[in-house]
Automatic annotation (TrEMBL):
Molecular functions per Gene Ontology: proton-transporting ATP synthase activity, rotational mechanism
Name of this chain's protein: ATP synthase subunit delta
Listed NCBIfam families: ATP_synt_delta (TIGR01145), PRK05758.2-2 (NF004402)
Entries under InterPro entries matching the protein: ATP_synth_OSCP/delta_N_sf, ATPase_OSCP/dsu
Main localization category: membrane
Family classification: Belongs to the ATPase delta chain family.
Keywords: ATP synthesis, Cell membrane, CF(1), Hydrogen ion transport, Ion transport, Membrane, Transport
Organism: Pseudomonas duriflava
Subcellular location: Cell membrane; Membrane
Keyword Cell membrane: yes
GO CC aspect terms: plasma membrane; proton-transporting ATP synthase complex
HAMAP family: ATP_synth_delta_bact
Membrane topology reported for the UniProt record: Peripheral membrane protein
Role according to the record: F(1)F(0) ATP synthase produces ATP from ADP in the presence of a proton or sodium gradient. F-type ATPases consist of two structural domains, F(1) containing the extramembraneous catalytic core and F(0) containing the membrane proton channel, linked together by a central stalk and a peripheral stalk. During catalysis, ATP synthesis in the catalytic domain of F(1) is coupled via a rotary mechanism of the central stalk subunits to proton translocation. This protein is part of the stalk that links CF(0) to CF(1). It either transmits conformational changes from CF(0) to CF(1) or is implicated in proton conduction.
Gene field: atpH
């Protein structure tokens, strides 16, 4: 995974810097997400792996599949990625771009998993507390997992807060080991 990030980072950074200079971060975000989704489609993936396809043919295939949803600059980006044989990195490029965009916007995505559904009020309160702790605008995504027994697990970037009963029991079991 670290190798993919290392290879994809220059492309993500170049796309981000260009989008930022054009004041078009959201449009590039949408285009990169689309390209990532298209390249992860099984049929497209099989077509792109055909050894007889040239870089130009691979780029044309992606551009044709995306249609008019890619502007000229994004099409040129696809051609550059294809010329360097990096089409398979488009999902990672998209992820890294989103990280750069979130850093620029001082925002972060937080995934909250709870044993039971959280009310809107609880989600708002949790988002405000996380915003204060992280110093960023927090976009919260909530899901449920009855296996937690009780409590919540929060993932925001590199930060993981395990306040679940299952997590506490695991800590207790580890502490009791000889």
């Amino acid at each position: 995974m670290a190798e993919l990030n290392t290879l994809a980072r220059p492309y993500a950074k170049a796309a981000f810097e260009f989008a930022q200079s054009q004041q078009n971060l959201t449009k590039w975000s949408e285009e990169l997400r689309l390209l990532a989704a298209v390249t992860q489609d099984e049929t497209v993936r099989q077509l792109l792996q055909q050894p007889q396809l040239t870089a130009d043919a691979k780029a044309k295939l992606l551009i044709d599949v995306c249609g008019d949803q890619l502007d000229v600059q994004a099409q040129n980006f696809v051609r550059t990625v294809a010329e360097n044989n990096r089409i398979d990195l488009l999902p990672t490029i998209s992820e890294l771009y989103e990280e750069l965009k979130a850093e620029q916007e001082r925002s972060i995505e937080a995934e909250v998993t709870s044993a039971f559904a959280l009310s809107d009020e609880q989600q708002d309160k949790l988002a405000k507390a996380l915003s204060a702790r992280l110093g960023r605008d927090v976009r919260l995504h909530a899901s449920e997992d009855a296996g937690l027994i009780g409590g919540v697990v929060i993932r925001a970037g590199d930060l993981v807060i395990d306040g679940s009963v299952r997590g506490k029991l695991a800590q207790l079991a580890e502490a009791l080991k000889p």
